[in-house]
Amino acid sequence: MSTTHRVPSDAHAPFARPRGGQVDATAHDDATAHDGTGIPADAGTAVGTGTPARPAGPDVLTFGETMVALRGSGPLKLGGTLRVSVAGAESNVAIGLARLGHRVHWTGAVGADEAGELVLRTLRAEDVEVSGATRDPDAPTGLILFEPRLPEVTRVHYYRTGSAGSRPAAAAVARAYAAGPPRVLHLTGITPALGPVARATAGHALRLARRHATLVCLDVNFRARLWTAAEATEVLRDWLPSVDVLIASDDELALCLPGPAGGTDEDAARLLALGVREVVVTHGADGATAYAGDGGPRHQPAVPVRAVDPVGAGDAFTAGYLSALLDGADLAGRLARAATTGAFAAASTGDWEGAPTRAELDLLGAPPGTVVR
Questions:
Q1: In which band, very low, low, confident or very high, does the pLDDT at 41 lie, cut at 50, 70 and 90?
Q2: Is 315 considered catalytic here?
Q3: Catalytic residue among 219, 267, 309, 315
């Protein structure tokens, strides 16, 4: 029988936000304080006790497959040197948020192997809490190869079938919530595409989020190599009632909607009518547009940079958006920070290596040739 081992723990914990509809009967009865963003504020202290009302949770909880990443400088068949790093949509977002000063927990799974140790070591070094992650002794850590073919064209090769990351433990997510619910649960459409175990764990996380009034962010991140559009549509539409912030590219919106797709404005309006609080549509080099029931649409042009590597730019965008949301910024402010963090990633090599710190956010406005001393 397959077993998983927890990484030695050092748990932290919560925040929350009331959702529309009825809360699960097993939810906490205590009132939850919220800031102007709709995200739960810190619970503070229990009245008359001077002690915390409940454990203080992370700003963001996320999980999903993180793989060892090998990057070549040309065609793989010609050999040469490969640079070793790690990559994964959710962990890219986690690192981006941690660099901006937010507390982030990652509860994914890695193999009980050296590749898995590299993943955990890298996330720890980036100040992402991994005490809730699991080491799976019966499955390896996945592998991804990046093969640059043209200045702005990269082929990606996955070796992830049956990997530890494709079977994250629902118990790890449950323990994270027991230690203290997060303010935000961040999921992507990649996780349910990895197989039935990952899909079930993500579904469990959504139920816990509803129970604890956690704000849910879903980045569609459709991967045609992992599942069909029909499979994605079935899962995403089922998840939609639990989603607060939906992030999708122009061509991904239709995956979330019943019936034929319309224009972007029409599709976003339909999603808002279905209960999503914010719909953020990315347009690549043309920027992004956000829709919300209390305002919008709000368009944000892309920040002009010399693109070096577009891989990871979408995850950096998401990290910036969530960071500003956690900070209480309005819709325009959230989009502006997202565009900035996305530009940093596009102007840098690697999935997450170019993610800015909070102190670096203004650097993109500096004139060319600026030297910061």
A1: low
A2: yes
A3: 315
